[in-house]
Amino acid sequence: MRFRSENERLNDPQAWMINRFLWEAVYSGQIQESTLRLMTIENVMDVLTENFVEASNEEKLQHWVGILLSHPDWTLLDLIRIATDVLEIIPNDAFWGAALIGRVDLMKHYSKDCPDVIHTLPKEEYLAFRLAIMDGNLKFVNYFLGDFMDNASFNEVQRLEGMYDYKGVLRNNRGYSAFCQAAENGHLDVLNRLAKRFPGIIDDMLAKKSYYALELAFKNGHHNIVKLILNPNSWGATKRNLRPAFSLAAKYGHAKAAIRLRNFTRINEFHNWKYDSRTYIYALRMAVKNGHLELAKSMISWVSPGEAVFILNSVFLWAAENGDLDVLNRLVELAPDQVAAMVAEKSCQAFKRAAENGHLNVLNLLVELAPDQVAAMVAEDNYYAFSVAAQNGYLEMVTWLVELAPDQAAMMVAADDYYAFRLAAENGHLDVLHCLVELAPDQIVEMVAAWNYEAFRQAAIKGHTSVVRYLLQFSSVYAHAESHWQENHYTDYVTTYTQDYLQQLDEDWHAFSDAYPDGVYDFRNDEGEPDVLRALHGYYVLRQVIRRSIEGGLGIDTLATVERLLNIPGIKELVVANVRSRRFRDEQQVVSLVIGQRHNELLRLAFSVGHEDMIQRLLAIPAIREAAERHNFYDHEAVFDLRELAQDRESSMHGLTPQEQQSVSAIEEAYQGQLLEEGGAAAVMESLKQQLRDLYEQRPELSSIDIDGELYALPFDWEDMRVFIETHAYMDEALEQQIYNVYLQNHYHSAYRYLSKPNRWMADNASYVYIDRASNTRWSTFEEYLPLIAYLWLAASDESRPPMEEGMGVSERIDLFIRQLHLLNRAHNWDKSREVEKDGRIIREQYDDNEKDKPSCFSGVKRRLFQALISHPLYSPLNQVTVAQFVREWARDYYQARLQDYSSDDLRTMQQVFDKAYDEGIGNPLDNPLIQSLALGEEEQEAITEAFLERFGARAKGWDFVISSTLTACGAVPDNAFVALYASASLYRLLDEIPDQEQPLTNSSGNYGFFQSSGLSEQPDRSSDRNRMPLP
């Protein structure tokens, strides 16, 4: 049968006799009913009538062991008869069954009558020998180590000695369990026999750091065994063994053993004081914890006064950290004159450690012990106790600390940039967050926004749903979350919260309408006054609805929802405030709020997502329409606005416009072949990184530092930098920081770091990064954008498509691209602001904190990268102005080459014809044969179309009419672009520079770039006179 538990087995009247070792080794955790029945038989004659012929050898051994355990008083002859006649057990099994029970008489019988048993040693001999040691069966031990081995052959003895050389028998993978149980039960005679037979056993046991036997002897008061183990003649009295032995003596209050150990080698004279002080601290702690104060006093007297103070302080700190009031109280009793010093040690470290681990009872005791240090304990390390209590969710401790120093509550909350609030949110302690908000209601905005809304970000990452939903109730948090709704961990929370908000709003709306059929629903506070903060929250919900109006992830009727939100007066007022000044002030000038991220942002957001019905609805609001008209309906939105970026650090967060998305597709289509030729995105990225490394080394003026008047070029790699710092800035923190600053601000190196995995220069508190916990390394999210970065890099470095912006070449575009990677890498190093004086007034500006890298969030990457390609033909905005400018640029290049076929006289004739037409209004240039010869043929017209397609890719389709209208400006014939573009493309300058002798015309002004000024030095600008074309 199988027992359900060990307790059930031990309560059985027969099975309890079988110890746990035999239960597993012989019975394998279950016993037969027949064995239990045999164990209940009282008369040996009844057993002789049993028949076990059909039983297996294993079952017979189980019966045999059961009988031996249950009938120790039966005679040797009866037992031999049962084994031979009833069980018919083989001699080997009979021998080892007797060995397991420790029946030496039976073992002698079988080894004498059946000498072969000594040559067959099954695994049970280990267990038999160990059981004898544990039970203190000296008779068996002596027999086994003496007569049994003496009867074996020489080779067998060698094998036995090898087998029993402490490793297989005494240790048996359980830490010398047999020896330990003998020590626990006080079997000194057995241990003496083992020590005599195996002289190195104690030293070997202690060398394996197995001190359990010694501890059990201490614990059970077996002083003779302690004396045996600590006998220096039995083991080497080395520091390795003295330390734990000394600690055990202290733990169990064995003063004589402690003194004896001290006399072996004085503990306080060990060479390595730091290591041994830990042993001494542990020993004293054990003595105090277990109430052995007299021994503790003696131990303190054995060391110097300075060492005594150090040890007492260490034990006091440990007790505070672990909440052990008994040790603390006994230390006060042990050293009352040291109490104040122990409390104040290491800047009130005991108070801080107790707070870390939630031991409020210890904090109360410390306050009682040192009432004059309460203020210092609370304020120490910038209110560390309060912050860590909030971090770990100890609400009772948080409130207790506030009660202890109520006048410092606001400072506690604000300490270390609202560390308490941030970490409480990260760890999911909603009750603590409620408490902190109540303690500092006037600091809520700063509290939730600290460290770029770290409280919300970390709560979302860690999955603390209740905390996330609580924080989303604050309008600034929701504004941050909804603008980053596509970030990892944000999407589901923002979606669910917005849906719940709109559902609740719908219910409130209907309830209000039922109660006040003629009323206008608005956000009101308890006093019935407009609730601006609730309205602001509603404004940001409206922004989220518009942002996702095309994506449809909210599962709502978007237009109907927008209509309802806009019909709430409070929200409508904030919409208008955003359009006009982005600032709202109530009538009493009490509330002042900044609305949104940029002017007229709702309409511009609708433009970016391309929702025409939404645009029309918003344009129905007069203020929105007027602002849009003033800004030409934001037609420039696809163009990078440097001034706006400088004023708005979140510009990289704005959604991509449909035209920008189209540009991306065009870039991917144009460079897909090159990407594949170069080996894919990863290969292109490695090439980019190598170029960044090369540029870094080519510009030493950007990567050098002056140390004591000597200029050093800083190495590129992290390991080499660490060697440089150790060589030149060892123990010089200020210089080390200067070295770091050079790396942090070098845009080549910073761009390389952004693309590196890992980035060893990454800040530990950087938010939008991946972390390898095993190596504690971090890197940016660049891998998610690997193909896109590769495509954009190929576009930025493409010399066949030069920039279309004035004054910019390919090298400048490359540098701009690299700087954008640099800004991505340092994006959140610009989160802080400071006050500066400008034009006689104080303003706030963002600045780089010169800390390690804190890269951009996911949503900012695309926008930032695209900003580097503002002048690329495939990315530049395509409209009538852009197309017309391309035609003019093409015409200048074409006619510069074409006019080289004409003589100087012909060119002067053309110039005279145009001058008369413009200056005197005489004649029409189209009537002149020379000028007529400049007309474009079909081949040239096809060439300009092909060039347009090549530059602008798929986006060029549908713009043919603009090309045609540009070529026919002012009624000129379609094929004579020279006349049509004479003034607008500055073609007259080609005639102004007629060479004195027959030689090719050259463009002295260099390349005509997109939007480039047409003025030439040394030449009068007569373009204003040529803005009027003569009628044909």
Automatic annotation (TrEMBL):
Residues 998-1032 are annotated as: Disordered. Residues 999-1017 have a biased composition (Polar residues). Residues 1019-1032 have a biased composition (Basic and acidic residues). It holds the Pfam family Ank_2. Coiled coil: none annotated. InterPro entries: Ankyrin_rpt, Ankyrin_rpt-contain_sf, SecEffector_AnkRepeat. This is Ankyrin repeat protein. It comes from Legionella spiritensis.
